[in-house]
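hi! just following up on the protien thing from before. the input was this:
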Amino acid sequence: MEPRGYRLRFTALKLALVAVALAVIFASYGSVKGLEPAISLLVVLISLKVLEAHTAREFQVMVMMGWVLCLCGFFLAQDFATALCLLTAFALLLVALIHFHRASSPGAIWHPLATTGKLLAQAAPIVAL
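and the predicted 3d structure came back as:
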């Protein structure tokens, strides 16, 4: 996934970044308890995961964590504009996962987009219920 030697290796550096993130979240919200601070912490931890990811399995985990963040977006706001933005983010994550698993050529984005469209069209009746 990335050239060798670029991942975040030092445990002390990882712990320091998490401590700084916790301090910033605590300063912003006054607590680390609650829905919004927890989602902020999840975003920070996913960002740190991106910095140290180096295997295909970690890419899959990050996509699934992105889907969890999409779900968390619905917890915070449930209006139509937010739903469209989150559906777009969900679909783009699905396109990335399909493109990754099919090992398509770097410029061939239309086939994963078509597959994503088919999957979302099949799921639409269930969502409408």
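Helices lie at 11-29, 35-52, 56-76, 80-102, 110-128.
The first helix runs from residue 11 to 29.
cheers
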